[in-house]
Design goal:
2 domains; seven-stranded mixed sheet
């Protein structure tokens, strides 16, 4: 046993000497490499570098066909992403467009390209009004039926990027179409034609003035209020406090005002506009002509407000408000509307040419009262300037003159189209074919 113990000690001693020698060797290696920088996980990083080098080597060996295929696939993915985004927008806009009520206007002139004439009818229907707007304008039960409070013809020339807006005063005496004579007589105010629907109003305009109407848009009071409110209101600058007891307008302080839908409607409807100067109230005395000027100013303010709204929620609210009180004729296609929107999306409202059909008053005329007569040759001069060769210079049933005779319009030649022609008062008879242009009174509101 003693021998076994000596043998075990010998073996253990030899093991310890081996361990000591291994430690000394490791210590020597560590000392000899102490001047070198060590990197954590050096072996792993080295392996990763080798793999990257191997990958680069393989990519360098890729054929031009493979590279082209990769570029093509990447580009296709990008195109599909863009198509998916705008395709979704297209489908959404189409969905909103399909929600808008459509009306059949059989008497319209077919559109074959070029300038486009859109009749914008401002209906005085109170259907759908609620809240303060209803309190100001009256309810549908209080004011029944419908009349065209506004008759505007929007002349768009996409090739030039221009817009001219021609307003026809609502009290203009015109020849009624055969379907309306039994109800309204041979002659009557133009706004009475709309009582039988937009189809008859379009026919009356085309037969009296020779203006081809390609499309029709009808906006009632609730649609007007809804669009303004959806945009968060419009801003208009009032030089003086203003009021109109008939339309409900009440602006107590001068300056830039943010108008909600109901307030904007009271401005657009105002025919008895009054303004306050040095504590006294004064009437503008221009009736429908002053209202047309304020409507033009409102439209410019509305365009400016729409341009400034880029919030998707606001845009969605605006699109959602349109079906409430807006109607389009069945021929007004989505593609036409979309192309116009793309063409005029950055349109400067200051470029809008606002015109009013020249008319004159001769006082009370039985049985219609104080109506307006189309003022020739000034009216025909304006129509030729705006509509050019589109205009039918020999309309079927011209409006009556002051002798209540329906006579063909005079022959005139085209002159330079005025940028804006609006008369602050009823125009007077003139022997000159030139259109009189006057500056809007400074008491009227303007965009701000």
């Amino acid at each position: 046993m003693a021998g076994d113990d000596d043998t075990g000690r010998s073996k253990r001693g030899g093991g310890r000497r081996g361990e000591l020698e291994g430690l000394r060797k490791l210590e020597g290696e560590m000392e000899s490499s102490s001047s070198k920088q060590r990197v954590p996980n050096e072996e792993g990083l080295a392996a990763l570098g080798a793999e990257i080098d191997h990958g680069r080597s393989r990519r360098r060996r890729s054929s031009p066909r493979v590279r082209r295929r990769r570029i093509l696939l990447g580009g296709l993915a990008l195109v599909l992403l863009i198509v998916a985004f705008f395709g979704g927008g297209y489908l959404y806009l189409r969905y909103r467009f399909d929600q808008i009520k459509k009306i059949d206007v059989a008497t319209e002139t077919d559109y074959h390209g070029g300038p486009l004439n859109i009749l914008v009818i401002g209906s005085d229907s109170r259907a759908g009004l609620t809240g303060s707007a209803e309190a100001q304008a009256g309810s549908a039960a209080q004011v029944t039926g419908q009349r065209s409070d506004v008759d505007m013809i929007m002349h768009l020339d996409p090739s030039k990027g221009t817009i001219a807006l021609l307003s026809i005063p609502r009290d203009t005496l015109v020849s009624m179409s055969p379907d309306l004579k039994s109800q309204f007589g041979t002659f009557n105010r133009i706004n009475s034609a709309f009582n039988s629907g937009p189809d008859q109003l379009v026919k009356v305009i085309q037969d009296n003035l020779g203006i081809p109407i390609n499309d029709t848009v009808e906006v009632d009071f609730s649609g007007f209020v809804g669009m303004v409110d959806a945009l968060g209101g419009v801003k208009m600058n009032f030089p003086f406090p203003a009021r109109d007891a008939y339309s409900g307008l009440s602006v107590t302080q001068p300056g830039c005002q943010l108008l909600n839908g109901g307030q904007a409607l009271s401005v657009a409807r105002s025919r008895h506009y009054e303004y306050q100067v040095y504590g006294g109230w004064y009437s503008d005395g221009t009736g429908d002509f002053g209202r047309i000027q304020r409507q033009d100013a409102f439209l410019k303010a509305l365009i400016s407000s729409a341009h400034s709204k880029i919030n998707p929620l606001t845009i969605n609210a605006f699109l959602g408000s349109i079906p409430q009180g807006v109607k389009l004729d069945t021929k007004f296609g989505f593609n036409t509307l979309a192309s116009l929107a793309l063409k005029y999306h950055s349109y400067d409202p200051n470029s809008l040419a606002s015109l009013t059909l020249p008319t004159k008053s001769v006082g009370y005329v039985s049985p219609w009262g104080d109506v307006l007569f189309v003022d020739q040759p000034a009216a025909q001069q304006m129509l030729v300037n705006v509509f050019g060769s589109e205009l039918d210079t020999n309309p079927a049933t011209p409006p009556p003159n002051t002798s209540l005779e329906s006579v063909p319009p005079p022959t005139v030649t085209t002159t330079t189209v005025p940028a804006s022609t609006s008369s602050a008062a009823t125009s007077k008879a003139t022997s000159s074919p030139a259109v009189t242009t006057t500056t809007a009174p400074n008491y009227n509101p303007a965009p701000c």
